[in-house]
UniProtKB/TrEMBL annotation:
Taxonomic placement: Bacteria, Pseudomonadati, Pseudomonadota, Alphaproteobacteria, Sphingomonadales
InterPro entries, per database record: DUF1488
Region (Disordered): 1-24
Protein name: DUF1488 family protein
Protein's organism: Sphingomonas ginsenosidivorax
Length: 89
């Protein structure tokens, strides 16, 4: 069973230069930093994120939270957990 991840909504940032949505989340009482690549949002939605990356992130947040929680367990020492297409099942 994977751990529960709670996203700090105030930390959500669309980093269009890096083509990723960044945020801080709390998992098992510890704050972790995450970056979800636009390619993941495209895979989940079927649409290219342009000016609506945060909207797509919110729309698919349940799936993204599960993916991020699994990645956090798999990468316990990472300072920034980057989620890309390889993390999708």
């Amino acid at each position: 069973m994977s751990s529960r991840l709670d996203i700090d909504q105030a930390s959500l940032t669309d980093n269009d230069r890096q083509k990723q949505v960044e945020f801080t989340g709390e998992i098992d009482g510890e704050d972790r930093d995450f970056a979800v690549k636009y390619a993941v949002l495209k895979e989940l939605s079927g649409d290219e994120p342009e000016d609506d990356a945060l909207e797509l992130f919110e729309r698919f947040s349940d799936e993204i939270v599960d993916i991020c929680a699994e990645a956090a367990v798999a990468k316990p020492n990472a300072t920034l957990i980057v989620i890309d297409e390889g993390d999708l099942e």
